[in-house]
Every structure is written in C-alpha cells, then in structure tokens.
C-alpha cells in the first residue's frame, strides 16, 4: 500500500471522501442498495456520521497519511514509504542501474525539489565538502539540514527525506547522510568505489550507525532489521 493517495485532492486542501472496498466484505452492504431503508432513514444515517474537517484544512498531507494508516491497520496491510509521485524517480533509478530503494528515490526527489537535479554530482560534492569544513555540528533537526544545504526554508521533499532517513526516530540526522547519498547516485564509479567514498564522508565517526545508513540507501534494509554481519562485499552484490 502506498503512503500517499492521489495528491491532487489532498495537497490543495480540497475535501476528499476516502472510499475503500475489500472483498470479502462482512459489513452490511445491502443498507445502501436499492433494497435498503427509505430516504428519511438514509438522511438520518448520513447526518449522524462523525465528521471533522480541522485536520484536513490544517494539513492535508497528515490527513492523507492518517487515512492510509487507518486503512492499513484495519486490513492488516503494510504501508510502503513510496508515494505516487515517486514512480517517475523509480524509473530514473532503473535507467541509471541504481537500486530502487526508498532512500535513494527520496534523495533524487529532494534534489529536484531544490533545483539541483542538473548540477553535476561531483561538483556538488566539492561544494558540500567545503561547507562541511566550516560546519561544527553535524547532527541536527530538519532545519539544521536545511541550513547545511543552504536553503531558506524546509520544503516538503526535505521533510520527507529527513523522515525516511532518520530511522532511529530521534528527530536528528547527520547532515553528511545527504553527501553519502550523492556518492551512491554517481554513475561514473563502480559499486565498491561508491561505497568506499560514501563511508569516507563520515570520517569513521560512529561506524555502526553509518553502516546502517549505507545499507538503507543501497539495500533498503531498515535499521531494526539490520544484520551486523553484512560487509562491503555483500553490499556490492546485486
């Protein structure tokens, strides 16, 4: 199940009525059919339905997420971190022979959102290396990551990237995670070279956590499911 529904309805704040059908339906499906009750009872049943619009008006994306979480729990169906608009980035990943993981897709989506999709990766990495040298605090919240990237605000794509990559749920992320992902996007390097350069970005600080980050980028393995016996050779095998 995808994490977001059709964005055209939720994003601009247009009222949307979610409809969900799953067979075999054990509910009373005849109530709303031609054999059901009369118009007065239909009206009464409609007016007594609990309805609140505050959440939808305040943040339609949260409303869409909550709808999907409810449907997921009700049907015991897992939720994917991919959204509908991620499909085109999955296609790009396939064309570049990159693993179709959520983390890499969110990174590509972020670069497009902040207007960096046409900047050469090696050039951007050189710029970020200079910025890292003047950055004393590597760990921080999403606003700290925006500052590191030179952004005046936090676009939705950045928040989405931060949410996916901060798997430890500490509301904190190492800004170098972005840089490491750029190395993995490069198509001019072999897999082992990509992984080696990505690890170098972190300067051996907290190697276990950064191994988790690389595994999540390249293999889509979440931190809670990580087997620490994995090594670079296993990462490079596709």
UniProtKB/TrEMBL annotation:
PANTHER family: LYSOPHOSPHATIDYLCHOLINE ACYLTRANSFERASE (PTHR23063:SF52), PHOSPHOLIPID ACYLTRANSFERASE (PTHR23063). The keyword Nucleotide-binding does not apply. One of its GO terms (biological process) is lipid metabolic process. Residues 111-138 form a coiled coil. The keyword Transmembrane helix applies. Keywords: Acyltransferase, Coiled coil, Lipid metabolism, Membrane, Transferase, Transmembrane, Transmembrane helix. GO terms for cellular component: endoplasmic reticulum. One of its GO terms (molecular function) is lysophosphatidic acid acyltransferase activity. This is Lysophosphatidylcholine acyltransferase 1.
């Amino acid at each position: 199940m995808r994490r977001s529904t059709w964005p055209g309805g939720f994003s601009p704040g247009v009222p949307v009525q979610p409809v969900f059908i799953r067979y075999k339906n054990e509910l009373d499906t005849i109530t709303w059919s031609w054999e059901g009750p009369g118009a007065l009872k239909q009206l009464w049943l409609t007016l007594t339905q609990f309805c609140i619009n505050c959440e939808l008006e305040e943040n339609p994306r949260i409303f869409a997420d909550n709808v999907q979480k409810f449907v997921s729990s009700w049907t015991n169906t897992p939720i994917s971190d991919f959204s509908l608009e991620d499909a085109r980035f999955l296609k790009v990943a396939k064309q570049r022979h990159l693993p179709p993981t959520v983390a890499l897709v969110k990174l590509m989506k972020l670069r497009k959102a902040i207007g960096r999709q046409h900047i050469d990766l090696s050039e951007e990495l050189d710029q970020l290396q200079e910025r890292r040298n003047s950055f004393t605090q590597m760990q921080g919240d999403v606003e700290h990551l925006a500052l590191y990237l030179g952004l005046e605000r936090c676009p939705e794509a950045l928040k989405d990237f931060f949410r996916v990559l901060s798997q430890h749920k500490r509301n904190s992320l190492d800004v170098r995670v972005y840089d490491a992902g750029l190395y993995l996007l490069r198509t001019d390097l072999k897999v082992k070279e990509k992984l080696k350069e990505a690890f170098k970005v972190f300067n051996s600080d907290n190697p276990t956590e950064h191994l988790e980050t690389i595994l999540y980028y390249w293999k889509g393995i979440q931190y809670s499911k990580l087997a620490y016996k994995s090594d670079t050779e296993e990462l490079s095998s596709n």
